[in-house]
Amino acid sequence: MKAKITWINGRAFLGESGSGHSVVMDGAPEAGGRNIGVRPMEMLLLGLGGCTAFDVVHILEKSREKVTGVEIELDGTRAAEDPKVFTGVKLTYVFKGKGLKPATVERAVQLSAEKYCSASKMFETTAKLEHAWRIEEA
Questions:
Q1: I need a labelling partner for 92 at 20 to 30 A (CA). Which of 27, 74, 120, 133 fits?
Q2: CB neighbours of 114 closer than 8 A, spacing ≥ 6?
Q3: CATH number, domain 40-137
Q4: Which residues are 16's β-sheet partners?
Q5: pLDDT digit string (tens) for 86-118?
Q6: Which residues are paired to 98 by β-bridges?
């Protein structure tokens, strides 16, 4: 897996993935940025959310659950001192579907957290991950 970061100007950077996709990252105005893109540390939270979302949807579909929507809210806490690593992240999953089985949903979240999500395993080296979930009938 490869990626490339190119400095645009100020504190703005263009990130290009090996698969050919791009994203603009920028800093807060108080740090010299212009607020034109997502912060790099926010990208890490987005990566964690995307990784586990991929897993849980895949697991639920393989389990023949009628999932119609998944949202994951992530609330990260960072250390006060440099390096300001993540020390905690609460992931709240909201599943939508028809007749979703709570035990199957719980299993999907657990399997992602404990076995499949590479991002979760990296975050766990510095952060306590907390998982909560709920089901909304579609």
A1: 27
A2: none
A3: 3.30.300.20
A4: 4, 22
A5: 999 999 999 999 999 999 999 999 999 999 999
A6: 66
